[in-house]
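Sequence only, no structure available. Ideas?
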Amino acid sequence: MSDSPFFSIIVTTCRGDYPYVNDKSKHVLDAILENCDRQKFRDFELILVDLCYDYRSDWQKNRKQVDFPVLHIPDKDSIFRDLRLIRISTARNTGLIYARGKAVVFSDDGQYWSEDAFGYLKPWADNNAGSTCRLHRDDGHGPVEIDSRWMAYGMEGTLKTKVVNASDIGYMGGTLSMAPLKYMLQCNGWDEMFDGARQLEDSDMARRLGATGLKMAFEGHPLCVEHELGKCNTAFVRNDILAKCNGSYCYPLWKKEPRRIKANTVTIPDDVLDTFMSKNCLKRSSDGFCEDSGDVCNMSSNRRSLMNIYKDERLVFDIEVMRKARSWETVMQDELLF
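Reply:
I predicted one. Tokens follow.
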């Protein structure tokens, strides 16, 4: 990979074409492209990892022309793709294996970033640190700050910054967040064991980045607004089924290995697996999957297939080895993607 932009912007999506509840005219991919194109700092590339790639693979041909590189690709192969379950960690790792920048920036889809966002992130990367922006939400009545991390540090209502260990940031990836690429590779990317359900992959990522010693700044200046979104595209993601309780996997692992850095390089230890499978939560079945019939964690007909993931080595890999085998020039022939 010869080109070396300063930032690699990695955004993943599985939304339908027009995702904003309060603005039906916004195409999700166009809105992400506009976020980047309004930036004053221009030394970056955009990597769009699209779980709905199969039905809008021609977007790249018809999109607005811009002066920065754009890569639009599906997520890499995984057991979660076969099961059509949520796979945010797999998608973000797909972005990492193609990233060419000094630092990587992650964000969810459906957001608006002010034009100064990348400019405020850059000095932190220059100083070998990460950064995360203050998050607001707009349900159609204007942006309202919702980010409790600033309140926890007594910073609400200010534009001050505070530098802390990455673990103390609380989460990494949903809000506009940046880390030097070398730290993401040291962590071996996102833990794909968190796919198949929602939440905690971002908290786990922050915790492992903290174990590397990475410092991150609360950067309050750029405006990052999350719009109210429609559902994911059910043709490609079964967003009505949340198959497992990620907390019952995450917390025992943290307790056993509080300084864990690398993900996806070894199988889960037997005692952690036993804790995950044991019935120590009233909402979980005896084999570790949630029985709650509400909106948070419905049972899945695929839970037996998912349990097998925890008992074999299909998710063990080295992301640096994967990176060495890929380039932007050969991406459309990549067997991992197609």
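Residues 293-300 have pLDDT under 50 and may be disordered.
Hope that gets you unstuck.
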